[in-house]
Amino acid sequence: MGPVGGSPLETTFKGDWLKDGDRNTGFFHRMASAHRRNNAMDRIKADIGSIQVNCLSQQEAESLETPFAETEIHSALMEMNGDKSPGPDGFTVAFWQNAWDFAKEEIMEIGAENLGDFRPISLVGGLYKLLAKVLANRLKKVIGKVVSYAQNAFVMGRQILDASLIANEVIDSWQKKKEKGLVCKLDIEKAYDSINWNFLMKVLKKMGFGTKWMRWMWSCVSSAKFSILVNGVPAGFFPSTRGLRQGDPLSPYLFVMGMEVLDVLIRRAVEGGYLSGCNIRGGSRTSLNISHLFFADDTIVFCEASKEQVSHLSWILFWFEAASGLRINLAKSEIIPIGEVEDSLELAAELGCRFANLPNVYFPDAQVCCQKSGKNTKRFPLGGGNLEGKVHLVKWDAVCTEKHKGGLGLRRIATLNRALLGKWIWRFACEKNNFWNQVITTKYGQEDYGWRPKKVRGPAGVGVWKEIMKEDDWCWDNLAFRVGKGSKIKFWKDCWCTDTPLSQCFNQLFVLAVHRDATIEEMWDHDAGQGDWKLVFVRDFNDWEMDMVGELLHTLRGQRPSLEDDSVVWRQGRNGIFKIKEAYRLLDKSNATVFPARKIWGG
């Protein structure tokens, strides 16, 4: 037998190898294990130095650091809810609201330079909430400049429902075009409790915030202390290096700015071809790529149904976790395939999350939902339990009638839903620069000067916008134009100086007009002294038509373009802004007799 066993023939041929070569001993196993440990990467230090984010201008950054004014602090104090529980100092917000006149000298020192001079405040207790509110009021004015279109939560001028509408239209586009794709619903685990403070400071610095502002933010986030109860008694306090306070007015804005890094990573992956997103196309040749949407601490990513793109997304999330401390909760995250996607379970396993199917009725019919909700609402005040019968002494229509008409003021769900959908029509005309408006415009197109989208055509799909457009007519019947430059308002056909268009008020003159589709700007003569209207008709007027011309000129008296932009106004309200309450009252057709509301409800 040879040294390693085997036949004599094996020993003969392997003699040289056993003499000069390496035997498979424990020594070499330990060497291989040591090399594996040295080559393994058990941690990663992520740096955001190469990340390019939107920055504030120097003027905007300096405006955040201006000295605190008494009116600013008092206004923020009055906006706060006084019924919140007090902090360790025992004082509620209501106390400071009522004690403002004699306590304001102690609350604010003239010339305060930093949080330490802002007395009496120790960054714990009731007055911290006031300081955070003042800083949050300043921050919310500029946060829209530094976060991208994908962020819709806690940004002034945007709504979280905007992201829901966009996601719906993406799924609708994939289904109508019979394309395949993946919807990755990602949930961030303990979002506010996990974000790293040093990471936040780096993000603020890259966004152009000043040194003083960053020092203020650090004082606010790092002042929190923690303690562990041992046998019901706190066993001392210790600091932390991460986490934001729940209920702090600053926390939502700081978190949104931290999530901007993930937005940049995904956008760079799309630009590099590692993620595809979904291309929204309409009748025109233009297209719009949508790769992700943020719902505060929830994220939706749209990508191609391939293992490579899911793997790229996994690495992006891994890098973001290493940089920020924010980890994706895979137990609550899902991958939803759109279309006939093969190997869906393998794709979910690649990301490490659950697999889910898009429900057959993902967006149920609005009328059916309203009927079910109305039935449950009706059951609450008029009926008892399932086994308990109850006589309805008052008609449901009377219950839903407004108080000043003799009812209880409960709202009809179907009518309320129409009012809510109508607000989208108003917002489309007003919010030209919002991303959701661009998505609808790209997919469906727009009419004239972009005030109204085109009608939805083609198969129903799952698009919500088709249901919204059913409320277009009544909404526009109660909208009018406010003239600015007049470049986007038609002189004859739009409603701008009377309750109805001039083409309807002066139909005979409209028939004789030469420029029937002209805008107000085109009809205004800037060269005629202080300006005048250029009314051109196909023939001279008869004597009996001169009265109509005089009425038209009287209507136009005092009307002239300005340097402002054209806009729309809601005619049912005092300030011209669409209100759900006013729209509901307009749509509610309940008839009631005269009711002495003040004598009964006024007390």
Molecular structure report:
Mean pLDDT is 82; it is low at 116-124. It is built from 27 helices and 16 strands. Helix 11 runs antiparallel to helix 12 and helix 14 runs parallel beside helix 15 (344-351). A hairpin with a 4-residue loop joins strand 11 and strand 12. Among the domains are: 58-224 and 240-355, no CATH class; 479-571. Strands 1, 6, 7, 8, 9 and 10 form a six-stranded mixed β-sheet that branches. A two-stranded antiparallel ribbon has the order 2-3. The protein has a two-stranded antiparallel ribbon with strand order 4-5. It has 603 residues and is an alpha+beta fold. Keywords: Nucleotidyltransferase, RNA-directed DNA polymerase, Transferase. One of its GO terms (molecular function) is RNA-directed DNA polymerase activity. Pfam families: RVT_1. InterPro entries: DNA/RNA_pol_sf, Retrotransposon-Effector_Assoc, RT_dom. Residues 91-355 form the Reverse transcriptase domain.
| Overall form | globular
Q: What would the average pLDDT be, to the nearest integer?
A: 82
Give the fraction of residues assigned to helices.
40-55%
Strand content: 5-15%
Counting DSSP E segments of at least 2 residues, the number of strands comes to 16
What is the radius of gyration computed over CA atoms, rounded to a whole number of angstroms?
Answer: 33 Å
Largest sheet, in brief, is: 6 strands, mixed
Q: End-to-end distance, in Å?
A: 113 Å
Give the class from helix and strand content and strand pairing. alpha+beta
Number of helices: 27
Q: Low-confidence runs (pLDDT<50, min 5 residues)?
A: 116-124
Pfam family, one: RVT_1
Domain Reverse transcriptase: 91-355
GO molecular function: RNA-directed DNA polymerase activity
InterPro entries: DNA/RNA_pol_sf, Retrotransposon-Effector_Assoc, RT_dom
